[in-house]
Write the structure tokens for this entry.
Amino acid sequence: MKKKVVSVFLAMTMVAAMVAGCGGNNAASSNAAGTNGADTTGNAVTDDAAPADTEASDAADAAADAAGGDLADKKVGVCIYQFSDNFMTLFRGELENYLIEQGFSKDNITIVDGANDQATQTGQIDNFISQGVDVLIINPVNSSSAETITDKVVAADIPLVYINREPEESEEQRWADNGWDVTYVGCDARQSGTMQGELILDLGLETVDKNGDGKIQYIMVEGDPENIDAQYRTEFSVKALTDGGIEVECLSDQVGNWQQDQAQSIVANALGQYGDDVEVVFCNNDAMALGALQAIQAAGRTVGEDIYLVGVDALSEALEDVIAGTMTGTVFNDHFAQSHGAADAAIRFLNGEKNEYYIACDYVKVTSDNAQEVLDMVK
Ligand code: BGC
């Protein structure tokens, strides 16, 4: 049922991509993921994530059968960059459930918290290697550590599935060149940024331009710059506006590290400094949008009337705000497709099959029109 809803939404989604940004964060435009857009898909989750996910599940079932149904004996090590991250909490919960549904034993699935510290995570990976796990699923603390991680995991002859924080293109190319059992499963963050910009663009300049100066003044709150998602969302949200012919002015662009409390104080300060000139608040994720909303309300401003607010992820709380009109919109970061895609890729490796080196899935734009349906799906 969930899958059907996703496919309906996906049919309505549009992908655009390009360049731009404000606040001097243009590094992403030359980044690796640039070649890995929605049209470069893997064999598990494709542009139409829902049917592909179904196919992927069927493929995984077949793989499990072919492996003689012995997944229950396989040991899976899962490294999460930080348990306290709201989105990764949804992701890891769904990943564990799905692995169990596919036939793994709960006792053989070990999920560890990297506590946002690469040294801690590296120690956890070393432990998994010495324990002899059969497959590793890793959400790196630092994407830039991927080369070191890959080298030690490949040397131990353990298949590896990266999730959520995409390694650089040169790193992915190395997996391909060497024919290693390593892949990345994730969404193209440029798409989510573009959708954020479109949520504002679709309202029209007349609606958003409260001070009537012919341009849109905005605040940007960025996630951890270690994650390419933060760079791309920052860049492409603004680009969607400028591509739509809207002039923009960046009043403030600061790093909130994906955290609600940090975003709250960033937005409170920016509202204090720029007052009514702030027309839009872009947050790279919903946790930060929830913090921004607290600051907006504390400043006596009203979303949908004198200010507009968008996030990414479609956390339940944010969806409730979109339904209530206290958030303008969000973008569904499909943790079902991503976690299932990662598990299916792991199963294929365990079964001696190959995976593409990049397995993609789609984001879904969320407005008050579809927020209830998305909420029914994620709850
Ligand atoms: C999510 C964020 C999350 C981050 C973790 C992003 O894709 O949108 O909410 O904090 O991943 O790396």
User: Anything to note?
Assistant: Residues 1-54 have pLDDT under 50 and may be disordered. The longest helix spans residues 49-66. Residues 85, 87-88, 164-165, 223, 227, 229, 258, 285, 287, 312-313, 333 surround beta-D-glucopyranose (CB under 6 Å).
